[in-house]
Amino acid sequence: MYTEKVMDHFKNPRNVGEIENASGVGTVGNAKCGDIMRIYLDIDENEIIQDVKFKTFGCGAAVATSSMATELVKGKTVQEALAVTNKAVMEALDGLPPVKVHCSLLAEEAIHAALWDYAEKNGIKIDGLEKPKNDISEHEEEEEY
Amino acid sequence: MYTEKVMDHFKNPRNVGEIENASGVGTVGNAKCGDIMRIYLDIDENEIIQDVKFKTFGCGAAVATSSMATELVKGKTVQEALAVTNKAVMEALDGLPPVKVHCSLLAEEAIHAALWDYAEKNGIKIDGLEKPKNDISEHEEEEEY
Amino acid sequence: MDRKIYLDNAATTPVKPEVVEAMLPYFTERFGNPSSVYEFAAQNKSAVTAARETIAHALGAEPAEIYFTAGGTESDNWAIKETAEAYSQKGNHIITTKIEHHAVLHTCEYLEKHGYEVTYVNVDENGVVKLDELKKAIRPTTILISVMFANNEIGTIQPIKEIGEIAKENGILFHTDAVQAFGHVKIDVNEYHIDLLSASGHKINGPKGIGFLYIRKGLKLRSYIHGGAQERSRRAGTENVPAIVGFGKAVELAVATMDERMKKELELRDYLISHILAEVPYVRLNGHQKERLSNNANFSFQFIEGESLLIMLDMENICASSGSACTSGSLDPSHVLLAIGLPHEIAHGSLRLTLSDDITMDEIKYVIVKIKEIVEKLRSMSPLYEDFIKRQ
Amino acid sequence: MDRKIYLDNAATTPVKPEVVEAMLPYFTERFGNPSSVYEFAAQNKSAVTAARETIAHALGAEPAEIYFTAGGTESDNWAIKETAEAYSQKGNHIITTKIEHHAVLHTCEYLEKHGYEVTYVNVDENGVVKLDELKKAIRPTTILISVMFANNEIGTIQPIKEIGEIAKENGILFHTDAVQAFGHVKIDVNEYHIDLLSASGHKINGPKGIGFLYIRKGLKLRSYIHGGAQERSRRAGTENVPAIVGFGKAVELAVATMDERMKKELELRDYLISHILAEVPYVRLNGHQKERLSNNANFSFQFIEGESLLIMLDMENICASSGSACTSGSLDPSHVLLAIGLPHEIAHGSLRLTLSDDITMDEIKYVIVKIKEIVEKLRSMSPLYEDFIKRQ
Ligand SMILES: Cc1ncc(COP(=O)(O)O)c(C=O)c1O
Ligand SMILES: Cc1ncc(COP(=O)(O)O)c(C=O)c1O
């Protein structure tokens, strides 16, 4: 079902954990749908992401995309992190099964939510960042036969 | 599908053939239904069936029941022959598949038809013998689903 | 553990070597169509007859009441749709439950789109159908009650005899999806007043792609699959002789070993359940404590999600499932777990372990250790658990 | 002859040893449900995918257009009933022919009882569908044309491409029952404008109980068997992995050997036909002389009846059939032989010999000798022959 990269990030997820007094924390998804991601960012005064941690309740793809997303933003500037799309996460994982694409969207949203929290805490505005929805309700129905 | 007795009478049918100037000949069934039986009887002045022959166009059971029916009436009186029922033929063959029961009826009818012909030719009346139908149209429909 | 520990016997089972053995000659040698005239193929008819008799005997039914199908799903479709059709003069109402397999539920939903009315009766927190609700649901137009014998996810065995009696008293036909129960539990169609019963070969170490529908003598149901005159003109299609023979053999074995097997499975299952409940915090057992299949254990672990759990178990050579196999690729939590009242997030953290008598106590102990480790690991990664702990 | 001479390959075929070989691991080892999360079972998914690709490739189709079923009969039922249902807004008229298999005919009759109208187009004396009649039968409400690719009794191959074009020009869906043709004749669903195609495993040395329906991308057909989400939610029921794998292997072999096989069969068939026609009096060949399956010969012998002929052939170790296998237990003559204009009593005397490349020329010669002997013997017992001779 999953690529080797996905399995690797699931088996050995990078950056699991919490950051105390994080610069920004974002939580997205909801338990009803079976996916919740929380991302902690530690951002320094040069707007560089010094550290990032995540916690995820969800399927294999949810864990792997969280892990990969944290890897992709670590050491980046806020603007660079903002540019990390779900597509980038998927590509870095060598792809996801169609039913699992929403996990990568969730990972993107989680980063955005943490950045939003950072911006709010610091009273700044990050260009191109919109207030994240709490829940990405992209619950597209499979075609029913 | 068939009992050993049926197969034996099919493989080695008794009394196949014709009798020239037979005392009575009866043909029943029709080609449309796939069964025609013809029975020749040679009946002596004591009303004893001295010889009997048959020809049959039909399935394995049709051949076997013809063969068995001729065996059952051979050497018998006309009255005894009249008493040979399809049930007797079936029993003598150790049974027939349900879809083939009509063959035994046909055999009974063929005997009756030959006896009727004998009675007509000789201007006599045989007690309990009715004019045979040309065709026993007992084409019962199988239950349809 | 080197050996794979297969704990997903409710999804499917390995075909027993004796069953494969029994089937093999029918592929290459005795391959003939049993409706043929020539002896070599006509002999196959007696092989089919023997299998039919074995199965009928296992149910207290007549051989002529057993109709082979391609599996449990087809049997369910047939039973429900053709009862609906055959008895539409009498009424258009069907009663079933909220915890049926999709083969029943989606068939009922199909009928709802075609003018039928369906009542989906609730179950209690143990997954037992509410008999009072079921009785109240009966209308003059009710033509069928369809209640599964045992649930495929939580293993709860329904009060089938009582339901059969309710159906009988009210002159309503009674269908039971016994795909999980047949071969695992003793069933007598007459004692239980069952009119229609579905079963499937691959749930009892028989082949896939074969099942049967028991249809009580005298019922007006017609064919669902139209065509040739096979199965007394009620189910068309060239007879799948190897699979029928294999199914017959599997039933023979299942019946012969049932008592012993249940005893062994019960011991393993009860050990597993009691230890998981004692050793893992924030866990619940789903399904009835006693009235459940001897090989079924179903847990919900709070704060974690099922698929992750399954993959981690797989990494330890343990094969299990979360909800039913059919839906494990999907995101919706199992309708069965929701029906017994679990909140979504708890339903998501469910684990079904379905044993066989092939499993050893050592393996069960290993499984318990691994579940503990994995649940702990996943919780350490879970934002839900983090919130829960912080709230303490 | 010691060896059984099996000449009933249109009824069913032996499973090839390579096919059994391919299936075997999937019974006992790789038995897992392909929808499972654990790797050991998920791997089965790729085995299913590979079989689907082999089959799609053989038809010039996309893998996603192939849906596995339990056989040709189910495929026919699905194609016709669900087209009727999905396109009922457009119309309620279906066109088919008088010589379809019962899987199509009885399905159409079922639909007639449910508000649909069906035109059964005639065939000519060779069994070729009358295209002008077919065209004239088209109405604004016609939603489906269903014409079999090749007939199972008389072997006639239909002008499928022309029919596909007629259907396409008129915006009507086109289904073909290719159960007898698939694996025996080259088929390209695009070249022939086929929208739906039925096939079955056991007609091409694959297993019984498995078939497929090709459904052109974009068609609105829904499930016929409702339940789990297998086959992209279009055909429910636990995947019959061993049978699917075996079917894939059988198709692979059938495609690889098709040219050679046809060549050999043609030689045997033409020898058989020409010698029977030359050496037996009062006989006719049924079906088209040229446009026929390479393995099919069908004769009518006047004055004798088919079943007797079959039993006598069986006594000589020759397996054959009279009409189609499904109806050979019945008393009605084949609807196909009646449709090509045979009187009942001649239809009753029909013999179908369907070859394989496993047959030798020596065996064919033996068969010819035996047929001559048996026909003579049966005629000597036939009152019809007696009358005929006396009339001369
Ligand atoms: C309760 C129940 N009903 C029906 C089915 C369907 O059976 P099959 O997959 O053999 O069609 C299953 C198993 O998948 C089941 O567990
Ligand atoms: C033309 C045709 N259609 C359909 C079928 C039915 O196929 P199956 O018996 O595999 O269901 C057959 C064979 O029996 C056939 O010859």
Automatic annotation (TrEMBL), chains A, B:
Source domain of life: Bacteria
GO MF annotation terms: iron ion binding; iron-sulfur cluster binding
Transmembrane segments: none
Record-annotated NIF system FeS cluster assembly NifU N-terminal domain positions: 1-122
Pfam families recorded: NifU_N
One record GO biological process: iron-sulfur cluster assembly
InterPro entries linked: NIF_FeS_clus_asmbl_NifU-like (IPR017787), NIF_FeS_clus_asmbl_NifU_N (IPR002871)
Protein name in the entry: Nitrogen fixation protein NifU
Organism this protein belongs to: Anaeromicropila populeti
Automatic annotation (TrEMBL), chains C, D:
Main localisation: cytoplasm
A GO molecular-function annotation: 2 iron, 2 sulfur cluster binding
Catalytic activity: (sulfur carrier)-H + L-cysteine = (sulfur carrier)-SH + L-alanine
Keyword Cytoplasm in annotation: yes
Active-site residues (renumbered): C326 (cysteine persulfide intermediate)
Gene3D superfamilies (alphabetical): 1.10.260.50, Aspartate Aminotransferase, domain 1, Type I PLP-dependent aspartate aminotransferase-like (Major domain)
Sequence positions that bind pyridoxal 5'-phosphate: G72, T73, N152, Q180, S200, G201, H202, T238
Residues of the Aminotransferase class V domain: 5-366
GO biological process, one term: amino acid metabolic process
Keyword Plastid recorded: no
Annotated PANTHER family: CYSTEINE DESULFURASE (PTHR11601:SF34), CYSTEINE DESULFURYLASE FAMILY MEMBER (PTHR11601)
Subunit structure: Homodimer. Forms a heterotetramer with IscU, interacts with other sulfur acceptors.
Full protein name: Cysteine desulfurase IscS
Gene label: iscS
